[in-house]
Design a protein that fits this description.
Helix content is about 20%, strand content about 20%. The protein is of the alpha+beta class. The strands form six sheets. Strands 5-6-7 form a three-stranded antiparallel beta sheet, with no helix packed on it.
Length: about 260
């Protein structure tokens, strides 16, 4: 029972006409009335929708009205979901269900089971999760966890990529700034590294596209620093900065030899 309300709760067993019940369920100013028991709207004959703040609902539940004020130090919206108890893990949750083939939960939005402060948007089914703007799909998380962002792929420039996927699965900014380095050694790149490189041609299994490059396992055998995982992953990538540094070392060594012969 809500002690802030100035009216007694509506007794739903006395309600015959839900249109007139609407007029009792809202009020002006700081007064609020409420229903303190479970209500089955579907049991109401010829029910077309429940309007809160509007006599002409355009959906099953249509909420219209001004923001009631601040809740928890932040402006509140016209619809507020509150956990039923004051315990630490009393989640405030909204879920979507499909009645076809049983009451199957489709999605979940709200506090996680570990903490009220951790918010989860979860697709319960074997399907994708899409973020869209301007009525266009922008970012899609596929059911297998792959992330598609075609707009990001289309926006390119002449600089090197500065975002990579770390071994823990997080997106990181890649930078080689002096500000984050230590023990800088200008003689630390062995020019013999590049002489061991094994350039190859290959066909990518997934796309069938013919490519030129290096095999990460071959590069790892030369030095683990040539792979992006530092030799820890069973599906390694290439550290292009390290490869360029090794090739540059060879070019500089050869130039010194040429200059000595002149």
């Amino acid at each position: 029972m809500n002690s802030r309300c100035s009216h007694p709760p509506i007794n739903t067993s006395d309600i015959v006409n839900w249109n007139s019940a609407y007029t009792h369920s809202t009020s002006n100013g700081s007064d609020h009335t409420y229903i303190d028991q479970d209500v089955s709207i579907a049991a109401v004959p010829q029910f077309a929708g429940l309007g809160i703040g509007t006599p002409s609902p355009n959906a099953t539940l249509d909420v219209t009205g001004n923001s009631p004020g601040n809740v928890g130090g932040f402006p509140a919206g016209v619809l507020q979901i509150t956990s039923p108890t004051a315990t630490v893990n009393a989640s405030a949750v909204i879920t979507g269900h499909n009645s076809f083939g049983g009451n199957k939960q489709l999605w979940y939005l709200g506090s996680s089971s570990s903490s009220n402060d951790n918010i989860t948007l979860r697709n319960r089914q074997n399907g994708s999760l899409v973020l869209a703007t301007n009525d266009l799909d922008r970012v899609t998380i596929q059911a297998d966890g792959k992330i598609d962002a075609p707009v990001i792929y289309a926006e390119t420039d002449a600089s090197s990529a500065n975002v990579f996927v770390a071994t823990d699965g997080s997106l990181r900014r890649s930078t080689s700034s002096r500000k984050i380095q230590k023990d800088i050694d200008y003689e630390g790149v062995n020019s013999n590294f590049a002489l061991q490189f094994k350039p190859v041609s290959f066909i990518e299994k997934r796309t069938g596209i013919s490519m030129l490059g290096f095999i990460a396992e071959d590069m790892r055998n030369i030095d683990p620093r040539f792979t992006s995982d530092g030799g820890k992953d069973d599906l390694p990538g290439l550290n292009l900065n390290a490869i360029v540094a090794a090739l540059t070392s060879v070019i500089q060594m050869q130039q010194k030899q040429i200059d000595a012969l002149q």
